[in-house]
Amino acid sequence: MKKAFGQTVRDFKREINKKVLKVSGVERKVLDATSNESWGPHGTLLAEIAVASRNYHEYQVIMSVIWKRINDNGKNWRHVYKLPLTLRTTMPKWTCLVHCPTPFLQIL
């Protein structure tokens, strides 16, 4: 019961932060895909990110969120753990070769 209540409070807090900070839709999707939850990103979420990555401006937002997430450590290790899955399933292979900084190529 306590764990379920804590999860509900955490979800409620996350939703309030997203609305108050005015996070864009694409940014919210990437944040959800690389969340600290114990399960992986949902397939439909990854598909939506893949479609959004075809737009230049949304691609820039996606990559900026990913770049921020890659520097997480400690208790947020799942953010980094989910990044390769998110990148591989959402971005075409050539996109990262053209637009990614060199550190990304070493990770992938």
How does this model look, in words?
Its main location: cytoplasm. It is found in: Cytoplasmic vesicle, Clathrin-coated vesicle; Golgi apparatus. Residues 18-108 form the ENTH domain. The structure is a single chain. With 108 residues, this protein is mostly helical. The protein has a single domain (24-107), classed as Serine Threonine Protein Phosphatase 5, Tetratricopeptide repeat, CATH 1.25.40. 74% of the residues lie in helices and 0% in strands. The chain contains seven helices and no strands. Helix 2 packs across helix 3 and helix 2 (25-33) runs parallel beside helix 4. The model has no long low-confidence stretch (mean pLDDT 76).
Secondary-structure map:
Blueprint: H1 2-20, H2 25-33, H3 43-52, H4 56-70, H5 77-90, H6 93-99, H7 102-107
Helix pairs in contact: 2-3, 2-4
Percent strand: under 5%
Mean pLDDT: 76
CATH architectural designation: Alpha Horseshoe
CATH class equals: Mainly Alpha
Sheet with the most strands? none
Give the N-to-C terminal Cα separation. 40 Å
- Radius of gyration equals 14 Å
Number of helices: 7
CATH topology-level fold name: Serine Threonine Protein Phosphatase 5, Tetratricopeptide repeat
> Spans with pLDDT under 50 lasting ≥5 residues?
none
Brief summary of the model shown:
This protein is mainly alpha-helical and 108 residues long.
